[in-house]
Amino acid sequence: MASTPVINLRKGHAVRHNNEVCIVIDHELKTPPRMASYVQMSIRSVATKKVFNLRLTSNDSMDGVLLERVPHEYSYKDSGGYHFLNPDTYEDTVIFDDLVDPVKNYLIEGQLYTIMLADGVVATIDLPPSMVMTVTESSEGVKGDSANNVYKPATMETGLIVQVPLFINVGEKINVKTEDNSYLGRA
Prior knowledge:
This protein is an all-beta fold. It is 2% helix and 54% strand. The protein has one helix at 97-100, and strands spanning 3-5, 14-17, 20-30, 38-45, 51-57, 61-64, 67-78, 81-85, 92-95, 112-118, 121-126, 130-138, 151-156, 161-165, 173-177, 182-186. A hairpin with a 2-residue loop joins strand 10 (112-118) and strand 11.
């Protein structure tokens, strides 16, 4: 892929740095008064997981890497890792704990996820903005405790703990915002 100006990069883009494929994890354009603007950026190596903090001028550029987004269905976890099935080719992709850790509380068997490949190597697992999850454990709401916006912890089927309103009970399906683990409403 061609050279990309750093001001055009965004979180989730793939670039080549020090001959390694890296994912942009943070990107901010700064324009201090009476100074030239610059880009403050953090990138993580796909291979080594090392994070590089870069400060580049707004005129700099980096080599972009083509990211391929492939839908996969989560199957199961075993001692080898997390198994995802490509529904088109039925190819089994095994992803190790270090890549799955940030999203493991959202992995539900049979659910489709987007796996991002950079140069044929799994870079990240992309979650949808929200997911429907089932409450498996929660305390009962106390009758008469009706102060505005009172929340209680509830455990989802994956082990994720979400703060939910008092009226949510075990067995109910709710929408959870994947960005910050927050309750969005009943499903």
